[in-house]
Amino acid sequence: MKKIVLSIDGMTCSACSNGLEKYLNKQNGIIEANVNLVMANATIIYDENIVERTKLDDFVKQAGFKSLGEFKEINIESRGKKEKNHFIIFTILAIILMYISMGHMINLPIFDIIDVNTNPINYTICLFIFAIIFIIYGFDILKNGYKNLIHKTPNMDTLVGIGVLSSFLYSIYSMIMIIKGHTENIHNLYFESTAIVIYFIKLGRYLEGISKDKTKDAIQKLVKITPNQAIIKVDGEEKTVTLDEIHKGDIVICKPGEKIAVDGEIIEGVAHFDESFITGESKPANKTKGDKVIAGSINYDGYIEYKAEKIGKESTISEIVRAVIEASNTKAPIAKIADKVSGYFVPTVIIISILTFIIYLIMGYEFSYSLIRFVTILVVACPCSLGLATPLAMVVSEGICASNGILVKKNEILENAQKIDTIVFDKTGTLTYGKLKIAEIKNYSDIKEQELLQLAGSIESKGTHPIGKAFENYLEENKIEKLEVKEFENITGLGIIGKVNNQKLILGNSKILQKFNIKNIYSSEEEELTKKGNSIVYVADTSKVLALIGVNDVIRENAKEVIKELNKNNIETIMLTGDNKKTAEKIAKEIGITKIYSNVLPTEKTEVVKELKEQNRYVMMCGDGINDSPALATANIGVSVNSGTDIAIDSSDVILTKNDLRSIINLINISKKTVKNIKQNLFWAFFYNCLMIPIAMGLFTSFGISINPMIASIAMMFSSITVILNALRLRNIKIK
């Protein structure tokens, strides 16, 4: 099973994206396909044993669109000079056309040679020429509309194409009659409507393109974090190269004021770096030989040389951008509803317009009047506003989240985060920094304290729990050599075992003693240490306890503030930890959490989350370790701090790349405002169509309310622009 993101050309409205998505999902070998109108791409999961990669391009072509190959980057370009010049020229032509066709109505001076009253044939031919010019200008609309109709995926271009061609062909018939001498047909010319409808559709597309690009600005800023060029060292000489020319293992040079080009490891030099775009830490990080550097971070003050490790798509920032792109290609439940409605919208509008045309003819109205109603309905209907309502808001919000250290993997998370009423926090590494230090040792063996810590630290260094880092740091700080560890085993939720110097040692919490039938005669000493806020590590051999080691942690800087604000917003906060009750209670009391589950195994963490969900709670789980992975996957929304292990990050729905708990509050706030914005967009889109289609049908003419195709095209344009501008308001969300 493989996943690929293809760039798609030819999509102009939601009916296009919906039609392509449906077509792809019907094909044998395609497991799932999601099409994104705003990003102009399609995420396809397919079985490579059934369908070849090249066949996917064929499927896209068969659906009436064009695959531009694998989606490599976000293409945000300013509107091209050529496109802008075309728009200016046709704006001038549109004004001239309106002057010629309607100037006589308000007694504006008109050249006699094209005056409707004195030279009706010249007037008619002049309008015909203008209409031809505009049809050439809008040929892509007509072509796309026809193509999508043939492929049974009618879209907005189909509606406009049918309407424009109908009025144009009828106007040609009227022109022929005028040339034959039937000048009364001058009132049945709609060449100007044909031209102006195309002009306003083009105007709408031009403005829509600019607005869509603005929705992707935040994501594009992430792309631009890395520099375009870098200096590498080749045979002792400096050589300037592009990022594509850097290979793994190359020695890259970074001077003061420059950006790191690729992820790597410093091999020479010392410098301070600004990594705030990833870590959220405003204070520059001091780095020296052996430390890792992240692409995009700024070198403040030193000369360094570093070995390239992660290049191109492997870099940290590329992974973030890719995750954001993939998230934007997933469908939130509210978007699926809108897509379903949009899928039926175009065929319904075509049926309504045909029925209206027929009914007016049956009622005895002139053919020209019936045709105008037919064309106006087709032009005024706006599936674009319906289709853009959700994806535009989602793309804006995804970008805001990514820019502020919140990496959301699926769009549905942005919709559902506002439902959260319960947040379960892991303790170590989540509510605390997980930067543990050895605080106290109670040694009950004949082994010297430093030797005991060397044995325990060597085994702990093989594990992944944050407690192990405290032992590693102790060995490094005291320049104690790690010993070779054999028969290492991780016992989930209890501890670890290993053999050092032919001696088997058992390290973990009190429960691990029960597993190996070791009598615990030091429970009172454990209680004494836990009262001081220590996490306890028992060190034992196969028969008895050798020592108790107390390890302290530091509470995250803003944990208390975040818990207070969550409680204030009626979101219950719960601590879930494998640590002992006394330590858990001490930290919980300090930060304001009243409900605690302590001494829990990973499976028990999952059970707690399940129980909460069974109580109809909408649960968010926030953790960082392997022990948290099952609970993260079980929760309605799993949140992992970026400092966590890879498996925890893989199990989560949201990654806090800045390791800041306030990001949880920001996520919920963004979710609330995004859903509100989408509902507003959908309301205005539905309201517009519910109001304008009956007016276009002529149901309100008795009240003096009526529109023609030109007014309809303007109204349709403003409908889409209104939705786009409303979605762009999300960029003003304030992040704390």
Overview of this structure, please?
It is a single chain. With 736 residues, the chain is of the alpha+beta class. The chain folds into 5 domains: 2-70, Alpha-Beta Plaits (2-Layer Sandwich); 81-217 and 325-394 and 681-729, no CATH class; 227-314, Calcium-transporting ATPase, cytoplasmic transduction domain A; 411-427 and 557-665, HAD superfamily/HAD-like (Rossmann fold, 3-Layer(aba) Sandwich), CATH 3.40.50; 437-552, Calcium-transporting ATPase, cytoplasmic domain N, CATH 3.40.1110. The protein is 50% helix and 18% strand. It contains 26 helices and 26 strands. The chain has a 7-stranded mixed sheet, sandwiched between helices. The chain has a 6-stranded antiparallel sheet with strand order 6-5-7-13-8-11, with no helix packed on it. The model has no long low-confidence stretch (mean pLDDT 83).
Key structural traits:
single chain, 5 domains, Alpha-Beta Plaits, 6-stranded antiparallel sheet, 26 strands, 736 residues, Calcium-transporting ATPase, cytoplasmic transduction domain A, alpha+beta, 7-stranded mixed sheet, 26 helices
Quick summary:
By secondary structure, this protein is an alpha+beta fold.
- Biggest sheet character: 7 strands, mixed
Strand content: 15-25%
DSSP E strands, number: 26
Helix fraction by DSSP (H/I, runs of at least 4): 40-55%
Alpha plus pi helix count: 26
In total, the number of domains comes to 5
Low-confidence segments, given as residue ranges, are: none
The average pLDDT value, as a whole number, equals 83
Give me the Rg, rounded. Answer: 34 Å
Distance between the termini: 41 Å
Q: Pairing-aware structural class of the strands and helices?
A: alpha+beta
User: In which order are the strands of the major sheet placed?
Assistant: 14-26-25-24-15-22-23
